[in-house]
Amino acid sequence: MKQPGDLGEKKTIGLVAPSFGCTTEPYRTRLKTAIERWKKEGNIVLEGENIWKNDGVCASNVPEERAREFLDMYEGQADVLFSVGGGEVMCEMLPYVDFERIKKLPPKWFVGFSDNTNLTFTLTTLSDLVTIYGPCAGQFFQDVGPTRDTMRLLEGWKDIEGYPLWEKESLATEENPLASLNLTEKKVIASVDYEKPVEGILLGGCLDCLVTLSGTRYDRVKEFVSRQENGIIWFLEACDLSPLAIRRALFQLREAGWFENAKAFLIGRPLCYDADILGVNRHNAVLDILRPLHVPLLMDIDLGHFSPSMPIKCGARAQVSLGEGNIHIHYFE
User: Fold this and answer.
1) How far apart are CA 304 and CA 208, in angstroms?
2) pLDDT digits (tens, 9 = 90+) for 164-189
3) pLDDT in tens, 19-63
4) Which end of the chain is more exposed for a tag (fewer CB within 10 A), N or C?
Protein backbone atom coordinates (compact mmCIF):
# COMPACT_ATOMS: atom_id res chain seq x y z
CA MET A 1 0.00 0.00 0.00
CA LYS A 2 1.12 3.53 -0.78
CA GLN A 3 0.44 6.04 1.97
CA PRO A 4 0.90 9.75 1.23
CA GLY A 5 3.39 11.57 3.40
CA ASP A 6 2.58 13.45 6.59
CA LEU A 7 1.59 17.07 6.06
CA GLY A 8 2.52 20.15 8.03
CA GLU A 9 0.12 22.48 9.82
CA LYS A 10 -0.12 24.67 6.71
CA LYS A 11 -1.38 22.76 3.69
CA THR A 12 -2.34 23.26 0.08
CA ILE A 13 -5.91 22.01 0.03
CA GLY A 14 -7.58 21.06 -3.24
CA LEU A 15 -11.38 21.07 -3.33
CA VAL A 16 -13.21 18.83 -5.79
CA ALA A 17 -16.84 17.89 -6.43
CA PRO A 18 -16.93 14.28 -7.64
CA SER A 19 -20.54 14.07 -6.45
CA PHE A 20 -22.71 17.02 -5.34
CA GLY A 21 -21.61 20.62 -5.66
CA CYS A 22 -22.36 23.07 -2.85
CA THR A 23 -25.26 25.00 -4.36
CA THR A 24 -27.86 24.74 -1.57
CA GLU A 25 -27.99 25.40 2.15
CA PRO A 26 -26.57 24.52 4.57
CA TYR A 27 -23.78 23.24 2.32
CA ARG A 28 -22.94 26.46 0.48
CA THR A 29 -22.49 28.59 3.59
CA ARG A 30 -20.62 25.84 5.38
CA LEU A 31 -18.12 25.43 2.54
CA LYS A 32 -17.56 29.19 2.26
CA THR A 33 -16.97 29.35 6.01
CA ALA A 34 -14.59 26.37 5.92
CA ILE A 35 -12.56 27.98 3.12
CA GLU A 36 -12.32 31.23 5.07
CA ARG A 37 -11.23 29.35 8.18
CA TRP A 38 -8.57 27.36 6.34
CA LYS A 39 -7.14 30.50 4.76
CA LYS A 40 -7.02 32.31 8.11
CA GLU A 41 -5.02 29.38 9.45
CA GLY A 42 -2.42 29.92 6.72
CA ASN A 43 -3.48 27.20 4.28
CA ILE A 44 -3.69 27.63 0.51
CA VAL A 45 -7.09 26.58 -0.91
CA LEU A 46 -7.45 25.57 -4.56
CA GLU A 47 -11.07 25.55 -5.72
CA GLY A 48 -12.07 23.05 -8.40
CA GLU A 49 -14.30 24.38 -11.15
CA ASN A 50 -17.25 22.16 -10.18
CA ILE A 51 -17.56 22.83 -6.46
CA TRP A 52 -20.23 25.53 -6.81
CA LYS A 53 -22.08 23.85 -9.71
CA ASN A 54 -25.22 21.78 -10.17
CA ASP A 55 -24.92 21.01 -13.88
CA GLY A 56 -25.19 17.22 -13.83
CA VAL A 57 -27.94 14.77 -12.95
CA CYS A 58 -27.89 14.78 -9.14
CA ALA A 59 -24.28 15.95 -9.39
CA SER A 60 -22.05 18.98 -9.82
CA ASN A 61 -21.36 18.16 -13.47
CA VAL A 62 -21.46 15.36 -16.01
CA PRO A 63 -19.38 12.29 -15.04
CA GLU A 64 -16.55 13.04 -17.49
CA GLU A 65 -16.04 16.54 -16.11
CA ARG A 66 -16.10 15.38 -12.51
CA ALA A 67 -13.46 12.76 -13.26
CA ARG A 68 -11.33 15.29 -15.14
CA GLU A 69 -11.49 17.76 -12.26
CA PHE A 70 -10.39 15.06 -9.82
CA LEU A 71 -7.43 13.92 -11.92
CA ASP A 72 -6.32 17.48 -12.74
CA MET A 73 -6.34 18.35 -9.04
CA TYR A 74 -4.57 15.10 -8.14
CA GLU A 75 -1.80 15.89 -10.62
CA GLY A 76 -1.62 19.53 -9.52
CA GLN A 77 -0.11 21.35 -6.55
CA ALA A 78 -2.53 20.24 -3.81
CA ASP A 79 -1.18 18.28 -0.82
CA VAL A 80 -4.61 16.84 -0.05
CA LEU A 81 -7.89 16.62 -1.97
CA PHE A 82 -11.15 17.11 -0.11
CA SER A 83 -14.50 16.32 -1.65
CA VAL A 84 -16.93 19.16 -0.97
CA GLY A 85 -19.93 16.88 -0.47
CA GLY A 86 -21.61 13.53 -0.71
CA GLY A 87 -24.44 12.74 -3.09
CA GLU A 88 -26.09 9.98 -5.03
CA VAL A 89 -24.46 9.02 -8.36
CA MET A 90 -20.73 9.38 -7.93
CA CYS A 91 -20.36 5.84 -9.24
CA GLU A 92 -21.14 7.12 -12.76
CA MET A 93 -17.77 8.90 -12.96
CA LEU A 94 -15.77 5.71 -12.36
CA PRO A 95 -15.52 4.75 -16.07
CA TYR A 96 -13.59 7.99 -16.61
CA VAL A 97 -11.12 7.56 -13.73
CA ASP A 98 -7.77 6.10 -14.77
CA PHE A 99 -6.86 4.10 -11.67
CA GLU A 100 -3.72 2.64 -13.28
CA ARG A 101 -2.49 6.15 -14.05
CA ILE A 102 -3.16 7.25 -10.48
CA LYS A 103 -1.31 4.19 -9.20
CA LYS A 104 1.85 5.38 -10.96
CA LEU A 105 1.67 8.95 -9.64
CA PRO A 106 3.15 10.12 -6.33
CA PRO A 107 0.49 9.37 -3.69
CA LYS A 108 -1.75 12.14 -2.39
CA TRP A 109 -4.41 12.18 0.27
CA PHE A 110 -8.07 12.08 -0.71
CA VAL A 111 -10.72 12.70 1.95
CA GLY A 112 -14.45 12.17 1.52
CA PHE A 113 -17.54 10.64 3.07
CA SER A 114 -20.70 8.77 2.09
CA ASP A 115 -21.01 8.73 -1.74
CA ASN A 116 -17.27 9.39 -1.85
CA THR A 117 -16.83 5.72 -0.94
CA ASN A 118 -16.75 5.34 -4.72
CA LEU A 119 -13.26 6.87 -4.60
CA THR A 120 -11.98 6.26 -1.06
CA PHE A 121 -12.62 2.52 -1.54
CA THR A 122 -11.61 2.08 -5.19
CA LEU A 123 -8.43 4.15 -4.84
CA THR A 124 -7.46 1.69 -2.12
CA THR A 125 -8.47 -1.56 -3.83
CA LEU A 126 -7.52 -0.59 -7.41
CA SER A 127 -4.63 1.87 -6.94
CA ASP A 128 -3.19 0.56 -3.63
CA LEU A 129 -3.59 4.03 -2.12
CA VAL A 130 -4.41 4.83 1.50
CA THR A 131 -7.30 7.30 1.68
CA ILE A 132 -9.36 8.83 4.49
CA TYR A 133 -13.05 8.08 4.87
CA GLY A 134 -13.86 11.25 6.74
CA PRO A 135 -15.66 14.59 6.73
CA CYS A 136 -16.20 16.48 3.49
CA ALA A 137 -14.78 19.97 3.18
CA GLY A 138 -17.89 21.83 4.31
CA GLN A 139 -17.76 20.16 7.73
CA PHE A 140 -14.57 22.08 8.47
CA PHE A 141 -16.60 25.20 9.18
CA GLN A 142 -16.36 24.00 12.78
CA ASP A 143 -13.57 22.68 14.99
CA VAL A 144 -15.03 19.44 16.35
CA GLY A 145 -13.76 15.92 16.97
CA PRO A 146 -13.96 14.50 13.42
CA THR A 147 -12.52 17.58 11.67
CA ARG A 148 -9.78 17.90 14.26
CA ASP A 149 -8.93 14.19 14.02
CA THR A 150 -8.84 14.31 10.22
CA MET A 151 -6.21 17.04 10.29
CA ARG A 152 -4.29 15.07 12.90
CA LEU A 153 -4.28 11.98 10.69
CA LEU A 154 -3.02 14.07 7.76
CA GLU A 155 -0.25 15.39 9.97
CA GLY A 156 0.85 11.92 11.05
CA TRP A 157 -0.97 11.23 14.29
CA LYS A 158 -1.18 7.51 15.05
CA ASP A 159 -4.01 7.34 17.57
CA ILE A 160 -7.65 8.44 17.55
CA GLU A 161 -10.69 7.36 19.55
CA GLY A 162 -14.45 7.72 19.57
CA TYR A 163 -16.52 10.49 21.11
CA PRO A 164 -18.69 10.49 24.25
CA LEU A 165 -21.95 11.82 22.74
CA TRP A 166 -23.69 11.84 19.36
CA GLU A 167 -26.31 13.83 17.52
CA LYS A 168 -29.64 12.21 16.72
CA GLU A 169 -31.44 15.39 15.61
CA SER A 170 -29.48 18.11 13.79
CA LEU A 171 -30.23 21.77 14.45
CA ALA A 172 -28.90 22.89 11.06
CA THR A 173 -31.41 24.52 8.73
CA GLU A 174 -31.32 26.76 5.66
CA GLU A 175 -31.73 29.72 8.01
CA ASN A 176 -29.13 28.43 10.48
CA PRO A 177 -26.53 26.54 8.40
CA LEU A 178 -23.73 26.94 10.93
CA ALA A 179 -25.55 25.37 13.88
CA SER A 180 -23.34 23.50 16.31
CA LEU A 181 -23.68 19.77 16.84
CA ASN A 182 -26.67 18.82 18.98
CA LEU A 183 -24.93 16.20 21.11
CA THR A 184 -27.66 14.59 23.20
CA GLU A 185 -27.18 10.81 22.91
CA LYS A 186 -24.72 8.73 24.91
CA LYS A 187 -22.77 6.21 22.87
CA VAL A 188 -23.22 2.54 23.74
CA ILE A 189 -21.09 0.12 21.71
CA ALA A 190 -22.46 -3.38 21.24
CA SER A 191 -19.61 -5.89 21.39
CA VAL A 192 -19.93 -9.42 20.00
CA ASP A 193 -17.16 -12.03 20.28
CA TYR A 194 -14.62 -9.29 21.08
CA GLU A 195 -11.96 -10.42 23.54
CA LYS A 196 -8.75 -8.54 22.72
CA PRO A 197 -7.38 -5.88 20.33
CA VAL A 198 -7.51 -6.80 16.65
CA GLU A 199 -4.89 -5.92 14.04
CA GLY A 200 -5.46 -5.73 10.30
CA ILE A 201 -5.97 -3.54 7.25
CA LEU A 202 -8.90 -1.15 7.57
CA LEU A 203 -11.25 -1.31 4.59
CA GLY A 204 -14.81 -0.17 3.99
CA GLY A 205 -17.12 2.83 3.72
CA CYS A 206 -20.79 3.38 2.98
CA LEU A 207 -22.60 0.08 2.43
CA ASP A 208 -24.99 1.68 -0.06
CA CYS A 209 -22.05 2.35 -2.39
CA LEU A 210 -20.13 -0.84 -1.73
CA VAL A 211 -22.99 -3.11 -2.72
CA THR A 212 -23.36 -1.10 -5.95
CA LEU A 213 -19.70 -1.74 -6.77
CA SER A 214 -20.00 -5.47 -6.10
CA GLY A 215 -19.83 -7.49 -9.31
CA THR A 216 -18.75 -4.57 -11.51
CA ARG A 217 -15.38 -4.21 -13.23
CA TYR A 218 -14.34 -2.06 -10.23
CA ASP A 219 -14.79 -5.03 -7.94
CA ARG A 220 -11.36 -6.55 -7.37
CA VAL A 221 -11.95 -6.94 -3.69
CA LYS A 222 -11.28 -10.68 -3.46
CA GLU A 223 -7.91 -10.15 -5.09
CA PHE A 224 -7.12 -7.23 -2.79
CA VAL A 225 -8.09 -8.92 0.48
CA SER A 226 -6.24 -12.11 -0.45
CA ARG A 227 -2.98 -10.09 -0.61
CA GLN A 228 -3.32 -8.69 2.90
CA GLU A 229 -1.32 -10.90 5.24
CA ASN A 230 -2.70 -9.12 8.31
CA GLY A 231 -6.32 -9.68 7.29
CA ILE A 232 -9.07 -7.11 6.92
CA ILE A 233 -10.88 -5.06 9.54
CA TRP A 234 -14.05 -3.96 7.78
CA PHE A 235 -15.66 -0.63 8.72
CA LEU A 236 -19.20 -0.24 7.43
CA GLU A 237 -22.07 2.23 7.77
CA ALA A 238 -25.33 2.76 5.89
CA CYS A 239 -27.24 5.79 4.67
CA ASP A 240 -30.46 5.05 2.75
CA LEU A 241 -30.64 1.32 3.44
CA SER A 242 -33.37 -0.12 5.64
CA PRO A 243 -32.54 -2.94 8.08
CA LEU A 244 -33.72 -5.46 5.47
CA ALA A 245 -31.60 -3.80 2.78
CA ILE A 246 -28.58 -3.89 5.11
CA ARG A 247 -29.17 -7.59 5.67
CA ARG A 248 -29.40 -8.24 1.92
CA ALA A 249 -26.33 -6.11 1.16
CA LEU A 250 -24.18 -7.92 3.71
CA PHE A 251 -25.37 -11.26 2.36
CA GLN A 252 -24.40 -10.21 -1.16
CA LEU A 253 -20.92 -9.07 -0.15
CA ARG A 254 -20.36 -12.16 1.98
CA GLU A 255 -21.38 -14.49 -0.84
CA ALA A 256 -19.27 -12.49 -3.32
CA GLY A 257 -16.24 -13.44 -1.24
CA TRP A 258 -15.45 -9.98 0.08
CA PHE A 259 -15.23 -11.14 3.70
CA GLU A 260 -13.03 -14.22 3.19
CA ASN A 261 -10.03 -12.64 4.97
CA ALA A 262 -12.01 -10.70 7.59
CA LYS A 263 -10.49 -10.23 11.05
CA ALA A 264 -13.25 -8.04 12.52
CA PHE A 265 -16.14 -5.72 11.67
CA LEU A 266 -16.71 -2.15 12.85
CA ILE A 267 -20.35 -1.21 12.24
CA GLY A 268 -21.52 2.39 12.51
CA ARG A 269 -24.90 3.83 13.38
CA PRO A 270 -27.17 3.57 10.31
CA LEU A 271 -29.76 6.23 9.52
CA CYS A 272 -32.40 3.53 10.05
CA TYR A 273 -31.23 3.46 13.68
CA ASP A 274 -34.63 2.84 15.31
CA ALA A 275 -36.31 1.00 12.45
CA ASP A 276 -37.74 -2.50 12.84
CA ILE A 277 -39.12 -4.17 9.72
CA LEU A 278 -40.72 -7.59 10.18
CA GLY A 279 -38.51 -8.15 13.21
CA VAL A 280 -35.30 -7.08 11.44
CA ASN A 281 -33.42 -4.23 13.14
CA ARG A 282 -29.97 -2.67 12.85
CA HIS A 283 -28.39 -5.32 15.07
CA ASN A 284 -29.80 -8.64 13.89
CA ALA A 285 -29.52 -7.48 10.27
CA VAL A 286 -25.77 -7.57 10.86
CA LEU A 287 -25.43 -10.42 13.33
CA ASP A 288 -27.42 -13.01 11.40
CA ILE A 289 -25.21 -12.54 8.34
CA LEU A 290 -21.78 -11.86 9.85
CA ARG A 291 -21.71 -13.89 13.06
CA PRO A 292 -21.17 -17.18 11.17
CA LEU A 293 -17.76 -15.76 10.17
CA HIS A 294 -16.68 -16.11 13.85
CA VAL A 295 -14.83 -12.79 14.08
CA PRO A 296 -15.34 -9.88 16.50
CA LEU A 297 -18.04 -7.31 15.76
CA LEU A 298 -18.33 -3.85 17.28
CA MET A 299 -21.63 -2.14 16.49
CA ASP A 300 -22.97 1.40 16.99
CA ILE A 301 -19.48 2.89 16.89
CA ASP A 302 -18.92 6.56 16.00
CA LEU A 303 -19.16 6.03 12.27
CA GLY A 304 -21.92 7.02 9.89
CA HIS A 305 -24.44 9.70 9.01
CA PHE A 306 -25.20 10.56 12.63
CA SER A 307 -22.51 12.97 13.79
CA PRO A 308 -19.83 12.79 15.01
CA SER A 309 -18.25 10.18 12.76
CA MET A 310 -14.62 9.12 13.19
CA PRO A 311 -12.31 9.60 10.20
CA ILE A 312 -10.76 6.26 9.24
CA LYS A 313 -7.75 5.55 7.04
CA CYS A 314 -8.93 3.15 4.35
CA GLY A 315 -6.13 0.74 3.45
CA ALA A 316 -3.95 1.42 6.50
CA ARG A 317 -2.71 -1.20 8.95
CA ALA A 318 -4.07 -0.56 12.41
CA GLN A 319 -4.95 -2.06 15.75
CA VAL A 320 -8.50 -1.61 17.02
CA SER A 321 -9.24 -1.93 20.71
CA LEU A 322 -12.22 -1.38 22.97
CA GLY A 323 -11.80 0.03 26.45
CA GLU A 324 -14.03 1.86 28.91
CA GLY A 325 -16.88 1.81 26.40
CA ASN A 326 -14.89 3.54 23.70
CA ILE A 327 -13.16 2.46 20.49
CA HIS A 328 -9.47 3.23 19.96
CA ILE A 329 -7.57 2.98 16.66
CA HIS A 330 -3.78 2.89 16.55
CA TYR A 331 -2.11 3.17 13.13
CA PHE A 332 1.20 1.46 12.45
CA GLU A 333 2.16 3.42 9.32
Assistant:
1) 12
2) 999 999 999 889 999 999 999 999 99
3) 999 999 999 999 999 999 999 999 999 999 999 999 999 999 999
4) C
SS3 string, the chain, reads CECCCCCCCCCEEEEECCCCCCCCCCHHHHHHHHHHHHHHCCCEEEECCCCCCCCCCCCCCCHHHHHHHHHHHHCCCCCEEEECCCCCCHHHHHHHCCHHHHHHCCCCEEEECHHHHHHHHHHHHHHCECEEECCCHHHHHCCCHHHHHHHHHHCCCCEEECCCEECCCCCCCCCCCCCCCCCCEECCCEEECCCCCEEEEEEEEEHHHHHHHCCCCCCCHHHHHHCCCCCEEEEEECCCCCHHHHHHHHHHHHHCCCCCCEEEEEEEECCCCCCCECCECCCHHHHHHHHHHCCCEEEEEEEECCCCCCCEEECCEEEEEEECCEEEEEECC
Q: What is the pLDDT of residue 51?
A: 98
Type of residue found at 253: L
Instruction: Give the pLDDT of residue 333.
Output: 73
- Whether residue 26 has a cis bond before it, omega within 30° of 0: yes
For residues 189 and 331, give the distance between their C-alpha atoms in angstroms, rounded to a whole number.
Answer: 21
**Amino acid type, 155:** E
118-134, pLDDT tens digit by residue? 999 999 999 999 999 99
Task: Please tell me the predicted confidence (pLDDT) of residue 234.
Answer: 98
